[in-house]
Specification:
single chain, about 325 residues, alpha/beta, 7-stranded parallel sheet, 3-stranded mixed sheet, about 15% strand
């Protein structure tokens, strides 16, 4: 297959590109002039220079392709004006899907996120059908990703061959930036994590997420969403596993949410006074953490044949990769 990938220089997108090349597909990757190209080193791919605002570059990349993987997104909780989230995540999605439809692409996989999904107040795992509204979303990242998913669903209803995947919290090989989840792992490895709050997450290996993207292209039903998750764990369980696989001491101090929220305001105030400082916790992140992000990947497992590996293996691979590449002692 001839395939076009946006976001292929990022963490998830890079894993998708590697998996596509491994599977023998001909791959084009959208790269910005300022993109870090380490994800693409050693890969036989065609680079299309441009970004999600560049219709000419998008059309040049998509023309003649069978599949499009729209992985690109602005994933951050600090450092960007609010309008940038909507221009990149919402309007960028609309642009890619429109051009892909005009070019007659056979299948489009839109990379959404569990950030767009609903949650169960009793902390049981939610799924693709759990009720959710825009009002449930805290912060511009989550709101923009929710609206981008609505754009994808709208295109699917109009007949565009779009399948949506909702990755959980990926970890593992290639997290150069690093991602917010990766930064949490690095904070632990550097001994900067003194305590934890009562929350939870769904940890998944990024290579399993990449495999899930290909399965969605091959087997996914148009207009359907598929959660690409791994294992639901409390933050304390994640930190205990990190202690076991890294040999570092465990984190034992549990911090009340109100203390974490108070500290987050101090941290972002310091960041505003010192532009070189990136806050480890923002009020938005702390508020989100009150509700554990537990999700059920049964639909992807049942319909796509998706088989994620245990979280312990994913976290071990992440620790080894960070150490090998000089991110952690």
């Amino acid at each position: 297959m001839r395939v076009f990938v946006t976001g292929g220089t990022g963490f998830v997108g890079g894993a998708v590109v590697r998996r596509l090349v491994e599977a023998g597909h001909q791959v084009r990757v959208l790269t910005r002039p300022t993109s870090d190209l380490r994800q693409l080193e050693g890969l036989d791919v065609e680079k299309i220079v441009g970004d999600l605002s560049d219709e000419e570059a998008l059309r040049r990349g998509i023309a003649g392709c069978d599949w499009v993987f729209h992985v690109a997104a602005l994933y951050a909780y600090w450092g960007y004006p609010w309008e940038t989230f909507y221009e990149v995540n919402v309007e960028g999605t609309r642009r890619v899907l429109r051009i892909a439809r005009e070019e007659g692409v056979n299948r489009i996989v839109h990379t959404s996120s569990i950030a767009t999904l609903g949650f169960n107040k009793d902390r049981t795992p939610a799924n693709e059908d759990t009720p959710v509204t825009l009002a449930d979303k805290v912060g511009h990242y989550k709101r923009s990703k929710f609206l981008a998913e609505q754009v994808a669903l709208e295109f699917a209803r109009e007949g565009t061959p779009v399948v949506i995947v909702n990755p959980a919290a990926p970890v593992g090989v290639g997290d150069y930036k690093p991602t917010p989840t990766g930064q949490m792992i690095l904070d632990f490895l550097h001994g900067r994590m003194f305590g934890y709050v009562d929350t939870g997450m769904n940890i998944v290996d990024v290579e399993d997420v990449a495999e899930g993207h290909l399965l969605a292209a091959e087997k996914g039903r148009i207009g359907e969403k598929y959660i690409l998750g791994g294992e639901n764990l409390t933050l304390k369980q994640v930190l205990d596993i990190l202690a076991e696989v890294s040999g570092r001491p465990p984190v034992r101090l549990r911090i009340p949410h109100w203390v974490a929220l108070l500290w987050s305001y101090v941290d972002v105030t310091w960041a505003r006074l010192n532009p070189r400082h990136v806050p480890s916790a923002t009020p938005e992140k702390v508020k989100v953490s009150r509700q554990p992000e537990y999700y059920d990947s049964s639909k992807a497992m049942r319909e796509l044949g998706y088989r994620p590996r245990p979280a312990r293996e994913a976290l071990r691979k992440a620790v080894e990769w960070y150490r090998l590449h000089g991110y952690a002692p």
